[in-house]
Amino acid sequence: MGPLIAPSILTADFARLADEAAAVEGVNGADWLHVDVMDGHFVPNLTIGPPVVASLRRHTQLWLDCHLMMTNPGELLEAFANSGADSASVHVELGQTEQLCAEMRRLGLGVGLVVNPETSITSAWPFLELIDLLLVMSVHPGFGGQAFMPEAIAKVAAARQEIDRRRLPVTLQVDGGIDATTAVVMAEAGARCFVAGSAVFHRPDHLGALRSIHEAAASAVAGPGAAGR
Ligand code: DX5
Ligand code: ZN
Q1: What is the tens place of the pLDDT at every residue in 114-169?
Q2: Where are the alpha helices (DSSP H) in the chain?
Q3: What is the predicted pLDDT for the residue at 229?
Q4: Which residue, among 215, 213, 210, has the nearest Cα to 9 in the 3D structure?
Q5: 224-33-8-97 Cα dihedral, nearest 10 degrees
Q6: Catalytic pick among 31, 36, 39, 179
């Protein structure tokens, strides 16, 4: 399977979300739409919640991949599911991961787990059997447009190895500072789903920017040494 590209609406124009989603949807367009939910506590920024997801749901067919940067995601998982979210990802730093994963599964959501830059990737190992998506952050969460942290490369490689060793159907996602250059490095390390905010929505040609990231990642995935992954 080729790489998945998930444009992050964090860097889109929030007053024109339906248009921004439509701009990346279509043939050779986005695979998922990444929705950054921030509560002003877990991260020092505040964005959107279930009502906006519900509005967006009426305007796009894209898979809504909700990245929950929240201290208490459990309180709103049901509301996200009811609003039309397709998957939700919670941070491993919060604890209670098993319960949160079970709740997401019960609600019919895709189950994602996120690992912050300062958190060891091995903290995700106990939960790999429970999840569909493992997200390795390559910036400190909270804001778009930050510089890519190269420390994330080794974490992605370790995660790729562990997922493959256990033969698990877990999609390995990266988020933060991803563009056509860093996507190559992350694809070579083993990432298969690429969140990109400013590299898509801060370019006038959103779709063209997205395609260049897709092509870069696809060629790296297909390159020498990456066969079969
Ligand atoms: C950061 C968010 C990211 C963000 C990425 O807290 O989780 O999804 O939108 O933006 P870029 O691609 O600009 O780093
Ligand atoms: Zn995100």
Answers
A1: 999 999 999 999 999 999 999 999 999 999 999 999 999 999 999 999 999 999 99
A2: 17-24, 50-57, 77-83, 97-106, 151-165, 180-189, 198-201, 206-222
A3: 41
A4: 210
A5: -90
A6: 36
pTM for this entry: 0.97
45 alpha carbon to ligand 2 midpoint, in Å?
A: 12
Question: How far is the C-alpha of 55 from the C-alpha of 58, rounded, in Å?
Answer: 6
Which of helix, strand or coil describes residue 158?
helix
CB contact at 8 A, 171 and 193: yes
Told to judge if 36 belongs to the known catalytic residues of this protein, a careful annotator would answer yes
pLDDT tens digits along 97-108? 999 999 999 999
Please tell me which residue in 86, 132, 175, 179 is annotated as part of the active site: 175
Neighbours of 125 (CB within 10 A): 13
Q: Within the chain, how many helices (H) and strands (E) appear?
A: 8, 8
Q: Which regions in the chain score pLDDT beneath 70? A: 224-229
Contacts of 84 (CB under 8 A, 6+ apart): 53, 54, 56, 57, 64
